[in-house]
Amino acid sequence: MGVPALLWSDLTLAHLERLDQTTDDAGVRSVLLELCLSDAEYPQRQDVLLEFFANLLNFARQHSFSAEKTSTLFSLMKRTHSEMVDAHLTAESCYELFKSLLLAHSVQRPPYSVGIFTLGEVKLITAYARDNYFRHFKLFRYGFTLKHEKTITLRNSHIEQPPSSFAPLSEAIPFEPEPESAEPEPEPELAAGDDEETGRSLMAPIKLDVDLPPAVLEAVQAQLTTQMEALRASLERQHAVRTKQLERQLAML
Length: 253
Known about the structure:
The chain has 253 residues and is mostly helical. Helix content is 58%, strand content 3%. The protein is built from nine helices and two strands. A hairpin with a 3-residue loop joins strand 1 and strand 2. The mean pLDDT is 82.
């Protein structure tokens, strides 16, 4: 990464000679307005920049900066301000940008930096920028922040529209109620003994599809039948207990 081309980027040697020939601030502002600070769309912002950079040139004259140093200082502050406006930088980010640009023009280490300013001049420039720009950073940011107005229109395409016309009632389909079905005959109640015998008869016989001796098969089938009957009896007892609990709850209502 090379050195930012700030030297002679905005003010050339001929421009500085014209500025040196002026004797008052009004003449300096007119030359700056002609060269690089014209902003007809926002005249108030233009006046702020003219005043700031006119004071910056006076600072360079007071400290006897050379033409190279004055041109570099002018472009350095102009680049810092332009990046703040375009990228909407915070005060911290803008100050870091200013320090990086100043450092790149304070150490002779090409192609990474060039030694235009001395250490004492770096301190003077830093103090001037802190007191005259960054101390009023919020005012600069507020004054140079572009105002964007947006118009939002909401459209809902899921609104159900009513039909344009309705069919006459003469075209309606007549409603015919379905005939009531006959009540089903109640099933005959089974006694407790009949229910037990019926449950046993409905149980499918257990068949084992294995190759075992007949005596072993009979013993296994008898054991399985006994376990199934015990399981059925347990379920019937649980059902009876649950039925009694429900009856007691109904009786309490």
